[in-house]
Design goal:
By secondary structure, the protein is of the alpha/beta class. The protein has a single domain, classed as Rossmann fold (3-Layer(aba) Sandwich), CATH 3.40.50.1240. It contains four helices and six strands, in the order βαβαβαβαββ. β2, α2 and β3 form a beta-alpha-beta unit. α1 packs parallel to α2 and α3 crosses α4.
Length: 166
């Protein structure tokens, strides 16, 4: 049975307060507009991940919370994973390999360049630039999350806010 992995880059963050640590940057006005709109698009598609995991950075957690709300997914069920914060592709791969075998659809909300590199690795080809709030949806013909490797993904969709003229 194929499994599904949805990789989301966090929505646009605010760079206005230089005193804030990178980890603590919130979403800016555009991010607060784009994330709910992308959540609606996910809901309209009938997406229903079994698990949503996000980086511990405020901008990623906020994005994940907004998407979760649109998908009628309890914010209490979100898994905040500090190792995803600005993680390299290898750390993202390990996070997915550690997923419960009961999961059929896993959503990960993180950062670039790791998210883009991870999607490209799974596809076996460049996915292109993951702009803020971009969603890459992959089907993986694997029997176990532990066996996930390069070139095993099939692109189901790749979309981002400006495609919908937000």
């Amino acid at each position: 049975m194929p499994r599904r992995l949805t990789i989301v880059r966090h929505a646009k963050s605010d760079w206005g307060d230089c005193a804030l640590a990178d980890h603590d940057r919130p979403l800016n006005e555009r991010g607060l507009r784009d994330a709910p709109a992308m959540g609606i698009k996910l809901r309209e598609r009938g997406d229903s991940p079994d698990l949503i995991v996000c980086s511990s950075a405020l901008r990623a957690h906020t994005t994940a919370s907004i998407l979760a709300e649109a998908l009628d997914y309890s914010d209490d069920d979100l898994v905040v994973e500090p190792s995803i914060y600005e993680a390299p592709m290898s750390s993202l791969l390990e996070a997915v390999r550690g997923a419960s075998e009961e999961l059929e659809h896993f959503m990960m909300v993180g950062h670039n360049p790791g998210s883009e590199q991870f999607a490209s690795f799974l596809l076996g080809e460049a996915v292109g630039n993951l702009v803020t709030c971009a969603v890459v949806d992959l089907e993986l013909d694997i029997v176990s999350w532990k066996s996930i490797g390069g070139g095993e993904g099939r692109l189901l969709s790749y979309w981002y806010p400006k495609m919908f003229s937000m």
